[in-house]
Amino acid sequence: MNLQFEIPDNCTMPKVVISGNYYGTKTFPSLNNLLAEYSYSPARGNSMKRKYMKICNDEIRMQLKGYKAIHPIILHYRYHEPRDGHYRDFPNIHGFFSKIFCDSLQLCGVIENDDPRFLVNETHDFFYLPFDYGEPFIEIYIEELL
């Protein structure tokens, strides 16, 4: 398998793992799901965005405890989706989660802003879990450029 970013065994990069079935059998909804909520009303779309940002905020605060990036960062996402017969478009999954997670990093004080001066790039890889694995999860590694 060709990965965009190979995580070394002795990795010391800060990492956040978001695990659970927060959206049916999936960890998070996709961009299509958010757009469907906004098509009903802006309030429903905003409510959905706030709900999933709270999950990210809680995990960031718990797992990164006071970490603040001093230099620009690259985010490496690894999505572990359930193999339940319902496959989603990778850009839709990444589009929603990336925006929510970057906004949460900013809100939690990990980065000053999510513009290109502070967030240089992102990589994302997708995996399907074995049928009997359990909950899907997303790993996010924060590579700080020196």
Strand content: 15-25%
- What percentage of residues falls in helices of 4 or more residues? 25-40%
Distance between the terminal alpha carbons, to the nearest Å?
A: 29 Å
Gross geometry: globular
Q: Which class do the helix and strand fractions yield?
A: alpha+beta
Number of strands: 4
Mean pLDDT: 91
Given the structure, what is the number of helices? 3
Unreliable residue stretches? none
Strand order of the largest sheet: 1-4-2-3
Largest sheet: 4 strands, mixed
Gyration radius (Cα, Å) is 15 Å
Can you describe this structure?
- With 146 residues, the chain is of the alpha+beta class.
- 35% of the residues lie in helices and 22% in strands.
- The chain is built from 3 helices and 4 strands, in the order βααβαββ.
- The chain has helices at 31-40, 42-64, 90-107; strands at residues 15-19, 73-81, 119-128, 137-144.
- The chain has a 4-stranded mixed beta sheet with strand order 1-4-2-3, covered by helices on one side.
- β2 (73-81), α3 and β3 (119-128) form a beta-alpha-beta unit.
- The longest helix is centred in the middle third of the chain and has 23 residues, at 42-64.
- The protein is globular and about 40 Å long.
- It starts with 14 loop residues before the first strand and ends with a strand.
